[in-house]
UniProtKB/TrEMBL annotation:
Segments traversing the membrane: 62-86, 98-118, 125-145, 151-171, 268-291, 303-322, 334-352, 358-379, 391-413, 419-440
Entry's family note: Belongs to the polysaccharide synthase family.
Name assigned to this protein: Putative lipopolysaccharide biosynthesis protein
Keyword Metal-binding in record: no
Upper taxonomic lineage: Bacteria, environmental samples
Keywords on record: Cell membrane, Membrane, Transmembrane, Transmembrane helix
InterPro entries attached to this UniProt entry: Poly_Biosynth_Transport
Subcellular location(s) of the protein: Cell membrane
Gene Ontology CC: one annotated term: plasma membrane
Membrane topology type: Multi-pass membrane protein
Length: 458
């Protein structure tokens, strides 16, 4: 529902705004996300890994986050002229100072969000996400309709963060006190600093495209890529959201029983593969028709990039699951070093591929992420005894069936010229082929998922 609502607002905004509008926001996100990571400092995961977090633990993290975020906002406020000069775009001076308010506002709800996460309050988190998305989306579309361009996108982000923070307070029973003792935060920092460094490097590599494209190719190219990445992320984050909401708490609960842990992890691996491959490869299959129909020819350049990026989107939930596995095992140092090396390779690869254009950069990005799946698998074997053959037997059948279904769909629908008919035919045919192949192969995860939906229908 969250991704569907986001997609509806995204379609309207694509029609009202230009690639340059999206590009200005994309160029600033590397700074905003970096500051947000520093503000959170890995304490959400650190609190989750405590057996029974105390009120003092929550309180220390709460005031630490607010203090750090206030300091970071002042630093970035002062650096705004340098950022605008770096990109040679004076519009970024006031825009950056406005957009950077988001991570400071977010700091007031970080601990409340951690409380909901630890206690698996996913229903409440879902209500928060949907409400925040609707409120911020309506305001963002209204401002874009009034020709306020990129200011509407910035306001949409800030308002989303604000409503999330307020609703986290409504649903979380925990409240801070003025008895401030930072000693619990410093004790947790021994665990969280590794996650902090990991998240910093992750954010740098994730936002490197917007940074490099904005600097060397301008806001148009940054906007074209950013739009393609946005629609890919909508698909992969739908699956990733289902995963991250339960993976670490559930895996942490069974980590004392190695056999049980391995069974749970493999079942998650199968489910993620069962959903992720057909959904993301399917988005890549319909990318051109979809963007032309919803936004017009001005976004056609994003379609080719979207088809390519969806390869990464298909494996991203798998990368996340492996990462969650190392954290739930209390081995945040492995997660840190593995992510650090991977992100460093990505950054170096993007810089080296920059002279060859955006497609070469995206291809390098995908190649490194695919290779790194095998690095994560090595650590899964070391930590939980999951052999490569077992992991491949869980993943490859869904990948192969998805590829076969997409290739057959593409081949059959080639003669269709009407875009609406082509889009609908691809969606229906690919969906039917994938489920049909899964049914003929007697895929256990299909029967389990169907049984769960029928049993829990309202």
């Amino acid at each position: 529902m969250v991704q569907l609502i986001g997609a509806l607002f995204g379609i309207v905004l694509l029609q009202l705004l230009t690639p340059q509008d999206y590009g200005k926001i994309a160029m600033l996100m590397v700074f905003a996300n970096l500051a947000s990571t520093l503000q959170e400092s890995g304490f959400t995961a650190a609190l989750c890994n405590l057996r029974n977090p105390s009120d003092n633990d929550y309180n220390a993290v709460f005031w630490f986050n607010i203090g750090i975020s206030a300091l970071l906002y002042l630093v970035l406020y002062a650096c705004a002229p340098l950022i605008a000069r770096f990109y040679n775009d004076p519009d970024l001076l006031p825009l950056s100072r406005y957009l950077f308010l988001g991570f400071f506002i977010s700091s007031w709800g970080t601990v409340q969000r951690a409380y909901l996460f630890i206690h698996l309050m996913n229903r409440e988190s879902c209500i928060i996400a949907i409400t925040s998305l609707i409120v911020s989306g309506l305001v963002g579309v209204g401002m874009a309709w009034c020709k306020m361009a990129y200011w509407g996108l910035a306001t949409q982000q800030i308002l989303f963060i604000t409503v999330v923070a307020l609703m986290n307070w409504c649903y979380s029973p925990w409240r801070p006190s003025l008895h401030i003792d930072f000693r619990p935060a410093w004790r947790m920092f021994g665990f969280s600093w590794k996650l902090l460094l990991t998240n910093i490097v992750n954010n740098l590599s994730s936002n490197a495209f917007g940074f490099l494209l904005g600097k060397f190719y301008g806001d148009y190219s940054a906007g074209v890529y950013g739009t393609a990445r946005k629609w890919n992320d909508m698909g992969s984050n739908t699956i990733n959201g289902m995963l991250t909401g339960v993976a670490q708490p559930v895996l942490s609960q069974v980590r004392e029983d190695s056999d049980r842990y391995r069974q749970v992890f493999r079942k998650m691996l199968r489910f993620v593969s069962f959903v992720s491959f057909p959904c993301l490869l399917g988005i890549g299959l319909i990318a051109r028709e979809f963007l032309l129909l919803i936004a017009g020819p001005k976004w056609e350049e994003s379609a080719g990039l979207l088809s390519l990026i969806c390869i990464y989107g298909a494996i991203f939930p798998l990368l996340t699951l492996y990462s969650q596995m190392t954290i739930s095992q209390g081995r945040s140092q492995i997660n840190m070093w593995c992510t650090l090396v991977q992100s460093t390779l990505i950054l170096v690869g993007l810089v080296l591929m920059r002279p060859y254009g955006v497609y070469a950069m995206v291809g390098c990005f995908i190649f490194i992420n695919v290779v790194w799946l095998f690095v994560w698998q090595y650590f899964a074997w070391r930590l939980i005894g999951l052999r490569l053959f077992s992991a491949l037997s869980d993943v490859l059948p869904f990948l192969l069936v998805s590829i076969i279904a997409m290739v057959i769909t593409w081949w059959i629908t080639r003669p269709i010229e009407n875009l609406w008919l082509l889009l609908c035919s691809k969606v229906v045919l690919a969906f039917a082929l994938y489920l049909g192949f899964m049914w003929m192969c007697r895929a256990r995860i299909l029967r389990e998922s169907w049984g769960y939906l029928i049993h829990h229908k309202v």
